[in-house]
Each structure stands twice: as C-alpha cells, then as structure tokens.
Amino acid sequence: MLGLLVALAGVVFVFVKSGNTWWQLVTAAVLAGVLTQTAFLGHDAAHRQIFKSGKWNDWTSLIIANLLVGISYGWWRKKHTRHHANPNKQGSDPDIHFTAVAFTPDQAQRHSHPFVRWLVAHQGWWFFPILLLEGINLHISGIRRVFGRERVERRWVESTLLLLRIGGYLAIVFSVLPPGKAVVFLIVQLGLFGLYMGASFAPNHVGMPLVSSKLKLDFLRRQVNRPGFVGGCVVYATSRFGVAVLACRW
Ligand SMILES: [Zn+2]
Questions:
Q1: How far is the CA of 150 from the centre of ligand 1 (A)?
Q2: How many of the other CB atoms lie within 10 Å of CB of 97?
Q3: How far is the CA of 75 from the centre of ligand 1 (A)?
Q4: Which contacts of 76-83 are long-range, i.e. CB under 8 A and separated by 24 or more positions?
Q5: How far is the CA of 179 from the centre of ligand 1 (A)?
Q6: How many angstroms separate the CA atoms of 117 and 235, rounded?
Q7: Residue 124 in contact with residue 137, Cβ under 8 Å?
Q8: Terminus-to-terminus CA distance in the chain, angstroms?
Q9: How far is ligand 1, taken at its centre, from the CA of residue 47, in Å?
Q10: How many domains does the chain have?
Q11: Range of the domain at 133
Q12: How far apart are the CA of 97 and the centre of ligand 1, in A?
C-alpha cells in the first residue's frame, strides 16, 4: 500500500515539475496504470484483506476509492456484493449487464435503438475501443449515485471526498497545462484507465460459463470455478479483433 501511495505522489510530483510539455501524455499513461493498481488495492480492502479490523478495511477502501481513484465506494460496493453473490448469473450479476456489450443472444436482441443494435452486433470489433470509455463510466456512475436520490450510506463523506478528488485533480491538471493540452491529457488518462480496468474485469466474464437465472446452485458450485481473477497476468484476445491484451494485477 505504501509503495502505491509513493508512486501516486511521485506521479503528481513529476506532473507538476514537468510543466507544459507534450511529454505529459506519458505521465497520463503512467497515472492511469498507478490509479488502476490503487483501485485494485481498494477492492482488496473492501474484501477485508488488508487489516484485521473490518472498520479499518472499510474506511481504507472508502478513502482509496473516493479520494484517490475518484469512484464512489458505496455505489461500487453494492454492485460488487451482488456480483460476488451470484457470479455470472443472468439477471443477478450486474457485471454481465451492459448497454453496448451483450453476453447472451437475449441481451443482444433487447435493444430497440438501431445504433445500439448495430454496436452489439459488431461488439467483437468494438469491445476494446469501448473499454476506453469505462473509466468515465465508472466516475459518472459513482457521482450519479452519490448526488442522486437513492439511499447512500455516509453520503456526506462520500460526496466531500469525491468533490475533493475530482475538483482537485481538474484544478491541478488545468493549472499546469494549457486548456487544449489538459483536455488531451485527461482523454489519455481516462481512456487508458478504463482500458486497464475493463481489461481486468473482462477475464472474469468473457468466455466464462454463464448461469441461467432459473438455475439454483448451492454455495460451493456458485463460487467454485466462477470468476476470481485474484492475481498474476491474463492474456486474451477476441477472435475478430485479433489483438492480444495483457491484463495484470499484483
Ligand atoms: Zn471482489
């Protein structure tokens, strides 16, 4: 954990010191990688794998998610708990329900908008480019929940930390770089963050057996041989896209 905090502080230091240069796009790429690893750490804290105390894990995950990564812990935890309760079960696992990606023929047919239907029909081609948007999607989904009407535990803490993170980040980026370069920096950082996060989620679902919503499984079968990308690297490719992607976490 300390190593990641040092890495994060180091990236911010290098960014501020480097000033107005296109080399900052390299900083954006490094930041995307460090933030993804930081998010993984938040995930592990949420699973109570860092401290003995549940409270310490809970608050660590909240601070990592909201203040460091800029994603709402409350929004994500609720979704993630449902995912682990019924991994890859249709109708129950929120991580296999997306607008632009279908996991079953039924999901591919459910859209009425012609553009989304076309997108889903060609998802083999669009899968990796779409992942570039996953970072923005994660930030916006959390913001919508925290500032929306649905019940959120510790709403004030969550919203304050999110505002500090997102406002502070934008203030630093736009104070170091001129507006045009700052926007390109954000596009690269958010795009690569989404690609890395999405490429890490995908091996849990793509090509894994799906469970029908009607099938009742006992706890052991539900959890064994189900998704669980614990550590190491996975290389995978879509047959049509023809590109191998390496997703690593440690
Ligand atoms: Zn998990």
A1: 23
A2: 13
A3: 14
A4: 76/46, 76/138, 76/142, 77/46, 80/43, 80/46, 83/227
A5: 37
A6: 28
A7: no
A8: 11
A9: 7
A10: 1
A11: 2-249
A12: 17
* Distance from residue 154's CA to the centre of ligand 1 (Å): 21
What's the 168 CA to ligand 1 centre distance in angstroms? 28
Angle at 69 between CA 247 and CA 130, to 5 degrees: 50
What are the structure tokens assigned to 34, written together?
A: 């460090």
Residue matched to tokens 């690569």: 192
Return d(Cα 24, Cα 185) in angstroms, integer.
7
Specify the length of the chain in residues.
Answer: 250
Gap from CA of 230 to ligand 1 centroid (Å): 9
Q: What angle do CA 185, 40, 241 make, to 5 degrees?
A: 65
The pLDDT tens digits along the chain (250 residues) read 888 899 999 999 999 999 999 999 999 999 999 999 999 999 999 988 889 999 999 999 999 999 999 999 999 888 888 887 777 777 777 777 777 777 777 777 777 788 888 888 888 888 888 889 999 999 999 999 999 888 888 999 999 999 999 999 999 999 999 999 999 999 999 999 999 998 888 877 776 677 777 777 766 666 665 554 444 555 544 433 444 444 444 4
- State in Å: Cα 22 to ligand 1 middle: 37
Q: Please give the distance, rounded to the nearest whole angstrom, from the Cα atom of residue 77 to the centre of ligand 1.
A: 9
Rounded CA separation 44/38 (Å): 10
Ligand 1 mean position to 93 CA, how many Å?
Answer: 12
Instruction: Measure 90 CA to ligand 1 centroid, in angstroms.
Output: 18
